[in-house]
Design goal:
This protein is of the alpha+beta class and 165 residues long. It has a single domain (2-120), classed as Aminopeptidase, CATH 3.40.630.30. The chain has helices at residues 12-27, 50-53, 107-118, 132-145, and strands spanning 2-6, 63-70, 73-83, 90-98, 122-128, 148-155, 158-164. Strands 1-2-3-4-5-7-6 form a 7-stranded mixed β-sheet, sandwiched between helices. A hairpin with a 6-residue loop joins β3 (73-83) and β4 (90-98). α3 crosses α4 (132-145). The longest helix is centred in the first third of the chain and has 16 residues, at 12-27.
């Protein structure tokens, strides 16, 4: 069974370590990807906790960091945020990571389904076109949960998914 556990302000160091690992993996798919050596190199990291977004440009935004757990073990994380710049609220999967040892187990799809159930109904996300494993994952995970899907390639680097659940 997969669960989502909100990441507290005091657990952000553990999340930061996973984030750096994840972003290092992404850099293998895009040679121009910015070098991230610490979580604070990721420009939105602190914006995921109300304690650190007060009095910043991110104040008032709705962002949620979650550990993805299986049998009480952290196997990944996701960062989601509300994007209120549309006619209605659209949720965005900003980042989503499952440790390599837990991929192709169904855990990622189960975690994504939980997120969609808990938030929504309108969503968007992007995937690097060169990361074909991630594109296959998102194609399958979204198709299993979405009522409406639009997949466009806004730039050669990214697939952009918009969908409703």
């Amino acid at each position: 069974m997969v669960t989502l556990q909100p990441v507290t302000f005091h657990e952000r160091t553990q999340l930061g370590e996973l984030l750096v690992t994840y972003l290092s993996e992404l850099s293998t798919y895009d040679p121009d990807y910015p070098l991230i050596q610490t979580a604070t190199d990721y420009p939105y990291f602190d914006a995921y906790w109300p304690e650190s977004r007060a009095n910043t440009a991110f104040e008032g935004e709705e962002r949620h960091p979650f550990f993805i757990q299986a049998a009480s073990n952290v196997i990944g994380f996701t960062l989601i945020r509300a994007n209120d710049g549309y006619d209605s609220r659209v949720w965005q999967v900003a980042e989503f990571y499952i440790k390599p040892s837990h991929r192709k187990t169904g855990y990622g799809k189960a975690a994504f389904k939980t997120i969609c159930t808990q938030y929504g109904p309108d969503w968007e996300l992007q995937a690097l076109t060169s990361n074909t494993a991630a594109v296959r994952f998102w194609d399958a995970a979204i198709a299993a949960n979405a009522k409406r899907l639009r997949k466009t390639q806004t730039t050669p680097l990214f697939w952009h998914y918009t969908f409703s659940v």
